[in-house]
Write a structure and sequence with these properties.
The protein is an alpha+beta fold. It has seven helices and five strands. Helix content is 45%, strand content 11%. It holds the Pfam family MDMPI_C.
Length: 250
Amino acid sequence: MRDWTHAEHAEATGREITRMAEVLRDRDMSTPVPTCPGWDLAALTAHTGGVHRWAAAMVRDLAERRYDRDRMELGLPADPGGYAAWLGEGAGSLPEALLSREPQAPMWAWGGDRHVRFWSRRQLHETVVHRVDAELALGLPVSVDEDVAADGVEEFFDILPYARWSPGVAELRGAGETISLQADTGAGWVVTVDPDRFHHARSLRPGTVTVRAATAADLLQVVWGRRSPQDYGVEGDAGLLGWWLERAVI
C-alpha cells in the first residue's frame, strides 16, 4: 500500500470518471441497480455527476459551509440518453477545480480532514464505488486498480466515524474485539472496537474475525456493502462480523 498526494487523487478521479462514463455509454438507463436499492442507472448517474459538480463548486469557493445540492443548477440533460456524456464532462472540470486550490486550504468537509485534500480523495472513491455499482448492475467484470482500492478501504475507515447520519455508527463499541480484512495481494487492516471508540491500523495479523479475499478491490466491495464477505472467506466469529457490517454503513 502506498500513500497518495492530493494531485494524485485528483488526477485519478478524472480517470475514474472517464471509466464510469464509458461503462454507461449507450446503456439502458432504466436498468435497476441492485446495490443501490430503488435506483436505476439514470439515478445513479445523476447522483454521481451531481456530487462531482457540487464538490467542485465548494472547492472553487473554498466554501465555509455545505452547499445545498438540491438548489444548484447542475446542467443535467432532459434526456437520460445524454447522462453518460454529461457525467464524462466532470473528468475535466472536477480535477481542474481540485487542482486550482492548495490541498491544505481550509474549507467545509463532512469528514475529519476539513481541507481541500479531503475532497480529492472523497471524489475518487465516490466515483470508484459507483462505477462498481454500474458494472454489477450490467453484469460486467469489476476491476479496480489495487492501489486505488487499498486507499479506498482505508478512506472508508477514516471517514466512518464522521457518518453521523448513520445511527449504527454510534453503536460500534466493544471490549477490544478485532475485525481483520486481508487481501492476498498484501493489503491488510485490523479494526479494533474499544469501549469508547473504534480505530483501525494497517496490519497483516488475523482478528477475532478475519475476512480473506484475493484483492483489495474485493475488500473495498465488502466494506461498502457491495459484496458479501461470504463470497470470499471468513474465519472466526462470523457473528461479530455481521454485527459490524450492519452498523458500519455510510
